[in-house]
Design brief:
The complex is a heterodimer of chains A (105) and B (693).
Chain A lengths: L6 E4 L2 E2 L6 E2 L1 E5 L5 E7 L4 E3 L2 E3 L2 E3 L5 E3 L10 E5 L2 E6 L2 H14 L1
Antiparallel strand pairs in A: 1-4, 2-3, 4-5, 5-10, 6-7, 8-9, 10-11
Chain B lengths: L8 E8 L5 H11 L20 H6 L6 E7 L2 E7 L7 H10 L2 E7 L6 H12 L4 E6 L8 H12 L3 E3 L1 E4 L7 E4 L4 E5 L8 E4 L3 H19 L3 H10 L4 H14 L3 E5 L8 H11 L9 E2 L14 E2 L8 E10 L2 E10 L1 E3 L3 E4 L4 E4 L3 E5 L2 E5 L1 E3 L3 E5 L9 E3 L17 E7 L5 H14 L4 E4 L6 E5 L2 H15 L3 E4 L6 E4 L3 E9 L6 E11 L6 E5 L11 H12 L12 E9 L7 H17 L3 E15 L3 H10 L3 E8 L2 E9 L6 H8 L5 E11 L2 H11 L1
Parallel strand pairs in B: 1-3, 1-4, 4-5, 5-11, 6-11, 31-32
Antiparallel strand pairs in B: 2-3, 7-8, 8-9, 9-10, 12-13, 14-15, 14-23, 15-22, 16-21, 17-18, 17-23, 19-20, 19-22, 24-26, 24-27, 25-26, 28-33, 29-30, 30-32, 33-35, 33-36, 34-35
Helix pairs in contact in B: 10-11, 12-13
Classes of the chains: A mainly beta (105), B alpha+beta (693).
């Protein structure tokens, strides 16, 4: 089964510190429906007197804590339908991971 | 000088471990860019940048040399730096003023200790850099193994832009992963002829795999490039180059190239990469102005951007004295300056008139009439400007971020072989110390000896050799001394009467002085509490002076006495026999007697030592510091290294650099500076006193 190629577009961005960073890429099917996301991990992050080693933003931009934190170098998570399907050091690798998981599924 | 647009200027350094091929690579660059018409070789002693006699004799680079060349319509100012740790100051000051660097890594050994040290120095100054894995023609050379050492020892994201075709004596060319083509060097013509070719079939799969890694890594710094990739599954060469340049400047990754400079392969693509990926003066965020006193070092401060029309700002980073006088090398960050202009030395707050200006080409010079932002030039006629000083326009008298100089760690005493050479030696050493901020010169007050402090034995050996060759002074070298001090630990009141009656007018003075210990660095404090004229007012300064003079020679071992207060509380005088001299003599004797009863001790300098060591040697380093009577202050982890901070007596630090090198296979480095004085342990005090007796 060939790996489906999604249409990837920029999602949320972080403008903090004057430097814009893309926090997520959203993979859409031909009909424009978002079916996969690759999300940049952030952390350590202090919120409400708590220290989170690694967090990501869910589809509603809520902070999701990752426990245990992923190993060093796994800065991007690939999600399909809210399920983590893989981790990667770089966004393009995470995109390939998501597309491969979609193809396999 | 700058007719070349700023965006077409590159100010780069070439740096590496000793013998990795820096000077050889620089020679090829000069040949291919048409600056020289033949290639000089280090082993033949005829390279352009190693122009000093000692460099040619020893086959090593001692001083950094600046050369300029043109490549594809760009001007590249190159500084070739030394590899030996003793001349680290040259790397330090070069990296401080350069916009980019090429790190040369040996293809057989991979990352070597001095590469690590220089890499961390480049980290300190945020210098964008390219890595060139050299000597791939050598037996045992292995690009992939050398590449692995980049990640292991430097803890970086190393990104190959090229792969080798063949290895050792079969190394014929490279695969360019950006344009996905092979570049093959033809024999002869000293490597000047090469051609593009299809990627060899046996390397096609490997090239595809590495190209994907290149895309994954490089495009991650640029969202627009990612979108271009999502559209077509690839990106234009220009897009990829833009991403590589952005990642190189931000330090997100470090591009890796390869070749063999000695066999003339890989240098032209390295020059292309310098233009494509290293920043021009306008690509960098500008140099920071110095922090105000008391201001946090990390506070965001104003930056001086490269602009030829802005007020002038430049940094003096190197001084050399030759037969024509003193040359001050300046990196111009902003503005334009012409011969005859006056600028402000904002570090020392005085005006300097610019005499002649030169563009330097190793030891040769071409006179220029003006310099602009982005240039590096040498000025003649600066009278009181030292390395690290800022020169600025009076209209915007900024002080640029200062340079950090390594602390000299080895001292030797020097004395001229003939009495007639004393003055010549002093002048010579002062000039050499003016050129080299890692060389310190002082006179030991106790022995009167001239003490030279340097970075290592080779450093000091070269200085003594230069003293002989350039200033005609032959010198004897002796062993160094620790600068001990003495102080007291409890108060004591001493009454002393000086009475001398030997015919004629006599001498009479009596003083009663309270000696009290003070805090460290409290100095020497005098107080007069005499009431009722027991000691007439005109004799008080003589008492103060007598004790201060006598304090230069302590009562235990003759070292200066410090950190005490003395209060004149009472005394007596005689109308005829008292004099200032009599009171001075009485005060001196009062000090000698009183100090002995105030529990005197000897103090030794304690150094603040910072050792950067790979994790696998931290146990040895800490154990050794403990054996040296050191007190570990803290340990910090920084990527693959540990920084150990400790307070260690200076006496125990002599020869430390050699011990540290052998203990850590040369991978650790250290800096130290004076921190405070502490009492020496009893057994060591006894040794010191026995020596001075």
């Amino acid at each position: 089964m060939p790996t489906p190629r999604l249409h990837w577009m920029r999602g949320r961005r972080d403008e903090e510190g004057g430097e814009a960073r893309t926090l997520e890429w959203i993979g859409c099917d031909d009909a424009g429906a978002a079916i996969a996301r690759v999300v940049r991990l952030q952390g350590p992050l202090h919120t409400n007197w708590r220290l989170y080693q690694a967090v990501a933003l869910d589809t509603e931009a809520r902070v999701v804590q990752l426990r245990p934190p992923p190993p060093a170098g796994a800065d991007w998570l690939a999600y399909i339908g809210g399920q983590v399907v893989g981790r990667a050091a770089l966004p393009l690798q995470a995109v390939r991971t998501a597309e491969a998981a979609l193809g396999a599924g | 000088m700058s007719e070349t647009p700023l965006e077409k200027i590159r100010n780069i350094g070439i740096t590496a471990h000793i013998d990795a091929g820096k000077t050889t690579t620089t020679e090829r660059i000069l040949y291919y860019t048409g600056v020289s018409h033949k290639i000089g070789e280090v082993h033949d002693g005829n390279t352009t940048t190693d122009y000093m006699e000692q460099e040619r004799e020893r086959g090593i680079t001692i001083t950094s040399a600046a050369v300029t060349c043109e490549w594809k319509d760009h001007r590249i100012n190159i500084i070739d730096t030394p590899g030996h740790i003793d001349f680290n100051i040259e790397v330090n000051r070069s990296l401080r003023v350069l916009d980019g660097a090429v790190f040369i890594i040996e293809g057989v050994a991979g990352v070597q200790p001095q590469s690590e040290t220089n890499w961390r120095l480049a980290d300190r100054y945020n210098v964008p850099r390219l890595i060139f894995i050299n000597k791939l023609d050598r037996t045992g050379a292995d690009f992939y193994r050398a590449f692995d050492t980049l990640k292991e020892k430097l803890d970086i994201v190393a990104l190959p832009l090229q792969l080798p075709i063949g290895s050792e004596d079969q190394f014929v060319g490279i695969i360019d992963l950006v344009e996905m083509k092979a570049i093959i060097w033809e024999g002869g013509e000293l490597g000047a002829k090469y051609h593009d070719a299809p990627i060899p079939a046996d390397l096609a799969e490997k090239a595809k795999e590495y190209r994907q890694t290149l895309l994954d890594t490089a495009l991650s710094v640029d969202d627009a490039a990612m979108e271009e990739y999502f559209e077509s599954g690839d990106v234009a060469v220009e897009t990829l180059k833009r991403c590589i340049k952005a990642g190189t400047i931000s330090g997100a990754f470090r591009p890796v190239l390869c070749g063999t400079a000695f066999k003339n392969k890989g240098v032209q693509p390295l020059l292309d990469a310098v233009l494509d990926y290293l920043p021009s003066p306008v690509d960098i965020p500008g140099i920071k102005i110095a922090a105000e006193e008391g201001e946090d070092e990390h506070t965001e401060r104003r930056r001086i951007k490269a602009d030829p029309n802005a007020p002038f700002a430049g940094l003096a980073f190197k001084i050399i004295n030759d037969k024509y006088g003193t040359l001050t090398f300046v990196r111009v960050y902003a503005g334009t300056l012409r011969s005859g202009d006056t600028v402000l030395n904002t570090t020392r707050d005085h005006k300097e008139r610019i005499g002649r200006m030169f563009q330097m080409h190793a030891d040769k010079r071409a006179e220029i009439k003006e310099v602009s932002a982005g240039d590096i030039a040498a000025f003649v006629g600066l009278k009181d400007t030292m390395t690290g000083d800022t020169l600025a326009a009076a209209s915007d008298p900024v002080v640029l971020e200062r340079m950090a100089f390594p602390v000299p760690v080895i001292d030797i005493s020097v004395e001229p072989r003939t009495k007639e050479s004393v003055e010549k030696m002093t002048i010579g050493l002062q000039k050499l110390a003016g050129e080299d901020p890692s060389l310190r010169l002082r006179t030991d007050q106790e022995s009167g000896q001239t003490i030279l402090s340097g970075m290592g034995e080779l450093h000091l050996e070269i200085i003594i050799d230069r003293l002989k060759r350039e200033y005609g002074v032959e010198a004897n070298i002796g062993a160094p001394q620790v600068a001990y001090r003495e102080t007291i630990t409890r108060p004591h009141t001493e009454l002393y009467t000086h009475k001398k009656q030997s015919g004629g007018s006599g001498q009479y003075a009596e003083v009663k002085v309270v000696f009290e210990p003070m805090e460290r660095n409290g100095g020497i404090v005098f107080e007069n509490k005499v009431v009722g004229g027991a000691v007439p007012r005109e004799y008080i300064p003589a008492v103060e002076k007598g004790i201060r003079v006598q304090a230069e020679t302590g009562v235990l071992a003759g070292f200066p006495t410090v950190d005490f207060k003395y209060t004149l509380v009472d005394g007596k005088y005689h109308d005829v026999d008292s004099s200032a001299l009599a009171f001075e003599i009485a005060a001196k004797a009062c000090f000698r007697e009183g100090m002995k009863k105030a529990s005197p001790i000897i103090l030794e300098p304690i150094m603040d030592v910072e050792i950067t060591t790979p994790q696998d040697h931290v146990g040895d380093v800490v154990g050794d510091i403990n054996r040296r009577r050191g007190m570990i202050q803290n340990q910090e982890s920084s990527s693959s290294t540990i920084i150990v901070r400790a307070h260690v007596p200076l006496k125990e630090m002599f020869g430390y650099i050699s011990d540290l090198r052998s203990m850590t296979k040369g991978r650790a480095s250290f800096t130290m500076q004076f921190h405070h004085y502490d009492p020496v342990p009893r057994n060591i005090a006894d040794e010191i006193m026995a020596k001075s007796a």
